[in-house]
Amino acid sequence: MWAVLKKELKSYFLSPIGYVVIGIFLLCFSVFFYLTTISSGSVDLGALYYYTALYGLIIIVPILTMRMFAEERKNGTEQLLLTSPLSITKIVMGKLLAALSVIIITLLISFLFYFIVMFFGEPNIGNVLVAMLGFVLMSMATLSIGMFASSLTENQIIAGIITIAFLIISLFLSDISTVFSPIALMNYYTSFAQGVISIENIISLVLFSAVFISFTVIIMQRRKLVK
Predict the structure, then answer these.
(1) Contact predicate 49/22, CB 8 Å
(2) N or C: which terminus of the chain carries fewer CB neighbours within 10 A?
(3) Judging by beta carbons within 10 Å of its beta carbon (0-12, 13-18, 19+), is residue 180 exposed, middle or buried?
(4) DSSP one-letter code for 41
């Protein structure tokens, strides 16, 4: 798994992808920092992370995930990947953790906003850390969706569109019916943005991620059998 993680991280940062993702993410953070904190004179950074999760992940996650398996398939390197000594689960987890690492790096950089606010007030460090924890869990859940979409097709654009469509639709489905509440990811993040750790929401996001990771493993196992 660590070999895949290292390889994927290199691919992100030896190409413009990693830097573009971090740049776009920090731009989102900066815009919402102005809208939710500076313009309102607030020292609460919960809204900053909430709106960045709400809108930023829809942009960032497809960029990070659409190439995961689709590119391997298109370039003909998928067979080498599937016949490697590593298990499919380790390959999938390595790719997921590499993408998650890029987001975590951005989150660490975003901590600069906390120090900026310190000049004007006394922000609650505990609330910021809780919001970051929830952000990591949200990112893992959305990345698992994007990774699953990438495992379905060799076309990166299609994988990206599937991911974006799912994330956008999930924002509205819970308003249509409570039946769709389990896939309304932002509902799980609300408590974290308010500085409250909810064990139920942690479990829900972890289970959501596990389901789509399992789907991806199943798809790749089937492709390995075909190969």
Answers:
(1) no
(2) C
(3) middle
(4) T
